[in-house]
TrEMBL record:
It comes from Sporosarcina siberiensis. It holds the Pfam family Methyltransf_25. Residues 100-183 form the Methyltransferase domain. The keyword Methyltransferase applies. One of its GO terms (molecular function) is methyltransferase activity. The lineage of its organism: Bacteria, Bacillati, Bacillota, Bacilli, Bacillales. This is RNA methyltransferase.
């Protein structure tokens, strides 16, 4: 019998009930009839038709809609992030089996790509506030755990994750430290100074991005064995990837129609990709 995506995702949740705590009262949770998550205090959260669960305690409105996640998926599938994914895979592999949280997973493409390279006994959990992204992740990558959740109130117990990834997304260090196991790995990716400088030159007067010294200093305050690496390369930009790339990047948000038209009409054979990757382990 062919299982539906909802059932496949519900089974993944069932196998990993121990990871969760209720976002309302912090009690333990369980899957009931593969249709809802219920805590011991009877707070209940229905699984969607795709098999993800919304564990955010508040309604949030984000700028991330279905078209943005569709654009992001096209860019990821086009190989734009491949050197970064190779780096993350190499950093995560020595951790062995365990559970990985992608905090700010979007539509799940990056986490799914990393999990495909890791042993089958690695459990992947993706969370994001944007329901559209999580819905896409649950449909496109069944068998993993996908949740709408707030970084300020993560619906997981203490010390349950071996690895936390935070790629081009806001961080909540207090929550990440709570969630990580002892000596667990945290890996954060931020844009480097030259990230998408060809587009930045169109949308901003100053084409240089922010310096990352403040980010590194803050990171070092929370983690030990800190390593900082730069991953920079030029990516051959096929014409059909230009519009999705512009759509997915916050660089273009708020830009005038004239600026957007100018960017879309440009011939950009190569685009500069520049990331700073910080990794560290939870202090004992």
């Amino acid at each position: 019998m062919i299982l539906s995506k909802k059932v496949i995702n519900a089974q993944a949740l069932e196998r990993n009930e121990h990871l969760f705590k209720c976002p309302v009262c912090s009690a333990g949770m369980e899957i009931v009839e593969q249709s809802k998550m219920v805590c011991t205090e009877n707070h209940s959260f229905d699984l969607s038709k795709a098999g993800y669960v919304n564990l955010s305690s508040h309604i949030h409105v984000t700028k991330y809609d279905k078209s943005l996640f569709s654009a992001r998926k096209k860019v990821i599938d086009g190989g734009f992030f491949e050197p970064l994914l190779d780096y993350i895979y190499g950093a995560v592999l020595p951790q062995g089996s365990g559970t990985i949280l992608d905090a700010g997973c979007g539509e799940g493409s990056q986490l799914a790509a990393i999990l495909q390279r890791l042993p089958d006994d690695v459990t992947g959990v993706g969370i994001d506030l944007a329901k559209e992204g999580i819905a896409t992740a649950a449909k496109e990558h069944p068998g993993n755990i996908w949740c709408v959740a707030d970084l300020a109130n993560c619906p997981f117990g203490d010390s349950v994750f071996n690895v936390i990834l935070n790629v081009l997304s806001p961080a909540n260090y207090a929550e990440f430290l709570r969630l990580l196991k002892s000596e667990g790995l945290f890996l954060k990716v931020i844009p480097g100074e030259d990230y998408l400088k060809e587009l930045r030159a169109i949308f901003y007067d100053d084409p240089k991005g922010q310096k990352d010294s403040d980010h590194v200093m803050r990171f070092e305050q929370h983690f030990e064995s800190v390593q900082t690496d730069r991953i920079a390369y030029e990516f051959p930009l096929d014409k059909e990837l230009l519009a999705p790339l512009i759509r997915m990047t916050p660089l273009s948000w708020g830009a005038s129609p004239e600026k957007l038209e100018q960017a879309l009409s440009m011939d950009i054979p190569m685009i500069t990709v520049d990331f700073t990757v910080m990794s560290g382990v939870k202090k004992k």
